[in-house]
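Project standup — Tuesday

K.O.: blocked on the structure for the chain from last sprint. Re-posting the sequence here as requested.
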Amino acid sequence: MKESRSLIQRLHDSEINGGIAWPVQGLILAYFGCPLDGINFDEALVGSFAEAESWLDRAAASYFPESVFAKQERLSLGRPSSSRTIDLLHQGGIAGGAYWVFDSAFAAFLGDPGSTQVPNELAGVSSWAAAEAWLEQAAHKTGRNG
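H.V.: unblocked you, prediction finished:
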């Protein structure tokens, strides 16, 4: 049986950079662009991780119609993510964010996503699953469980 990859992992693997951050005005920010270059060309404020995935899915197909993601990888046919990590952190008042850039680069952090200071808790990992696992472990380690 083929392993199911998350929507964010599929975006990354299709060379589509982006990120998510929470809480932003009490919501979750989903965006396309590369934060390392300061480039952010579209974004949406949503209420849940499922809504963020849905927006990323629709917007990626629209912005990148020639990508592998748009041509083969879209799975927004009623299959929501099984991940609850971001929603649990967001609902628990634990601010943070994550972004991905092509070539196996994911970063995850806890702390105010709007801050200009480097977060105290920051991880560089090679997959979306590893970013989610790190976020969960970091929240538990600091005693801030969502």
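K.O.: great, moving the ticket to review. The chain has one domain: 7-141. The CA atoms of residues 24 and 113 lie 8 Å apart.
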